Amino acid sequence: MQVHYQVMSWDFETDAEYQKLLDWADEFVRTKVEPMDYVYKNPYDKSDKEAVAALKPLQKEVKDKGLWACHLGPDLGGPGYGQVKLALLNEILGRSSWAPIVFGCQAPDSGNAEILAHYATEEQKKRYLQPLLDGDIHSCYSMTEPQAGADPALFETKAVRDGDGWVLSGEKWFSSNAPYSEFFIVMAVTDTEKSTYHGQSMFIVPKETPGVEIIRSTGAGPDTSHQSHSYIRYNDVRLPFDALLGEEGGAFAIAQTRLGGGRIHHAMRTIAQCRKAFDLMCERALSRRTRNGKLADLQMTQQKIADSWIEFEQFRLLVLRTAWKIDKYQDYMKVRKDIAGVKVAMAKVYHDIVQRSMQLHGALGISGEMPFSSMMIGAQVMGIADGPTEVHQVTVAKQVLRDYEAGDERWPSAHIPTRTAEARKLLGVDK
Ligand SMILES: Cc1cc2nc3c(=O)[nH]c(=O)nc-3n(C[C@H](O)[C@H](O)[C@H](O)COP(=O)(O)OP(=O)(O)OC[C@H]3O[C@@H](n4cnc5c(N)ncnc54)[C@H](O)[C@@H]3O)c2cc1C
């Protein structure tokens, strides 16, 4: 058995010029953006005029600093820093639910913009991509269905050719931000004879199109302030032929392009949440007393801190190395294993650190006066959104096994008697 590991050089320094921008972003988010989280509710809700008025000048500061839409290349109005630098920035932005919008890189718009840039016609780009990039509108990605999420082979929403266009019908579920979006990108079956990989297509559906019905929207967890994941019915929605995004039958490939980027960007922002929970844990350990001294003096607290620090650092390094690989290969398919591994680790590390920190905060920790319960839901979300943990574990295992081959059925390659006999023969040792 011989496994070939890649050789790589190592450099953990951030270049000095970019570090200055990160320092600026850190201070800016801390002093001007994080306060938005405590005062305003939904960053996507443009009907909140007071919030929009507070947001605009902040977005201008970011644009003036050259940090607007850092996930995009210069051709689309971003600086094209690449994924490693984006990761370092997202580690800051992930602290605040408003920061991604202030910096023009919020999900799901960021992923939608990427696929529009990749697959849209010039006309579609003018109509949908440009206002999205300018931060003037929001968009929705409508793929999951009430009866099927993790397995796209079970999707039923369909689009059929009829006269001068398509007729779209079916139901979608958990289409985030639909109530605040100008258009939806909808995945639909267009050829039942073909496999999932070639029988589904993407469509751009303006929200006001007759037949688009938002049945209701739900939030995640008990917080009712963000009821933005929508259950949508497409009631024989008539679309022109040019509503098709990319090639007919190309939806699966488009979805893969979009979700690869989306997953790693979520992980970058999750680093910020893990760090926040960890910082609170350490602060609490040093502040809270029992009769035997501070919580920090108790070994079981020390174990929580040590385990959390180690898991956090491992996770962060995995995210950064994956970002580095995306920059290197410029091909998400070549980084599938890494992204799937990050996706699995993200939910677990986030959950475990938050759980320990919450525990150290006692009753206060579980109360609505601390952020832990929404962080716990956030960790659970990371194990489901963009595909459940189990599906990504399967991807990791399958990809890992590609680098191995079967050995002898009976004796493994490290079987000592077999290896000893081989070694004796090789070395010419008789006894
Ligand atoms: C906060 C949030 C935002 C979302 N936003 C969007 C959005 O904007 N647009 C959109 O289209 N979707 C969105 N989703 C939906 C998301 O993509 C799906 O929830 C996800 O793909 C899982 O689908 P499901 O919920 O139907 O779970 P199911 O497919 O029913 O799976 C349920 C559980 O079954 C188990 N399971 C499923 N498949 C396997 C398997 N192959 N092996 C082992 N176990 C398995 C897992 O434990 C899994 O969690 C969002 C979800 C969340 C939580």
TrEMBL record:
Could you list this entry's UniProt keywords, alphabetically sorted: FAD, Flavoprotein, Oxidoreductase
Q: What cellular-component terms does GO give this entry?
A: cytoplasm
Give the multimer and partner information.
Homodimer.
* Acyl-CoA dehydrogenase/oxidase N-terminal domain span: 16-136
Q: Could you read off the lineage of the organism from its UniProt record?
A: Bacteria, Bacillati, Actinomycetota, Actinomycetes, Geodermatophilales
The protein's name: Acyl-CoA dehydrogenase
Organism expressing this protein natively: Antricoccus suffuscus
The UniProt record lists the Acyl-CoA oxidase/dehydrogenase middle domain at: 140-222
Residues in Acyl-CoA dehydrogenase/oxidase C-terminal domain copies: 252-401
Statement: the UniProt record of this protein carries the keyword Oxidoreductase? yes
**Which protein family is it in?**
Belongs to the acyl-CoA dehydrogenase family.
Q: Does the keyword Flavoprotein apply?
A: yes
Q: Which GO terms describe its biological process?
A: fatty acid beta-oxidation using acyl-CoA dehydrogenase
What does the record give under GO molecular function? acyl-CoA dehydrogenase activity; flavin adenine dinucleotide binding
PANTHER family per record: ACYL-COA DEHYDROGENASE FAMILY MEMBER 11, MEDIUM-CHAIN SPECIFIC ACYL-COA DEHYDROGENASE, MITOCHONDRIAL-RELATED
> Per its Swiss-Prot or TrEMBL entry, what cofactor is needed?
FAD
